Amino acid sequence: VPGAQGFAPLGENWVLGAVPQGERDRLLARMERVRIEPKQIAYDVEQPIQHVYFPLSGMFSILAIADPRRVIEVAVVGNEGVVGVPVFLGAADTPGRAVCQIPADALRMPADAFRDEVQSAGPLHGAVRRYAQALFDQTAQTAICNSTHAIEERCARWLLMTHDRVGADTFVATQETLARMLGVQRSTVNGAAGKLQDAGLVGYARGRITIRDRAGLEAASCGCYRIIHRALARLLG
Ligand SMILES: [Zn+2]
Description:
Layout: H1 14-17, H2 21-28, E1 32-36, E2 41-43, E3 51-55, E4 59-67, E5 70-77, H3 85-88, E6 97-102, E7 104-110, H4 111-117, H5 123-148, H6 151-166, E8 170-172, H7 175-182, H8 186-198, E9 202-205, E10 208-211, H9 214-220, H10 224-236
Antiparallel strand pairs: 1-7, 2-6, 3-7, 4-5, 4-6, 8-10, 9-10
Helix pairs in contact: 5-10, 6-8, 6-9, 7-8
Zinc ion binds at residues 145, 149, 153, 157, 222, 224.
């Protein structure tokens, strides 16, 4: 059974890994290592972005918000990326929210320092630029996925993307999390999650999800998982 397909080893970050050692050491001196818990907000709706996060593990969700009760995940970020691309692109804030989904270790840099570092076209600038394109691709594909594909397929996609980023077969997430991220009713997700469990692809226990059959889950997902993964692989490869 093929395993999770992360882009950087757990405990490392792809973007920082793309920067030469000497330059990376200089950047690390401007960062602090932090532990981020689920529901902790990295940046919020139209609030000045204070820090940029380079995850080393775990996963963040980028959320779009229609109104306080209707929120949907438009992208996920793990140790392949950066939480704070709007800062790179010159925005001080966004209409969306970035929130921790799966407990994460991350290196964080004050937004001002990051702005300063990416002003010149050095290696950090190049790596973040490539990642930003992959993030746009992911966001676009997630939009069409959410409006086109069946909930079972979307559940499978989410589980695969999460599996790739957490680097473990079991992770802390509930069906309620899944429902919230996919923007559907809890009962809708329960039915889909139940089908995946009955097929032996995943298991649920005590607020944890276990991936039991990765290949089966890939077969159960819509093509969006592969499209997003290929876009990342092309840009980060
Ligand atoms: Zn899809």
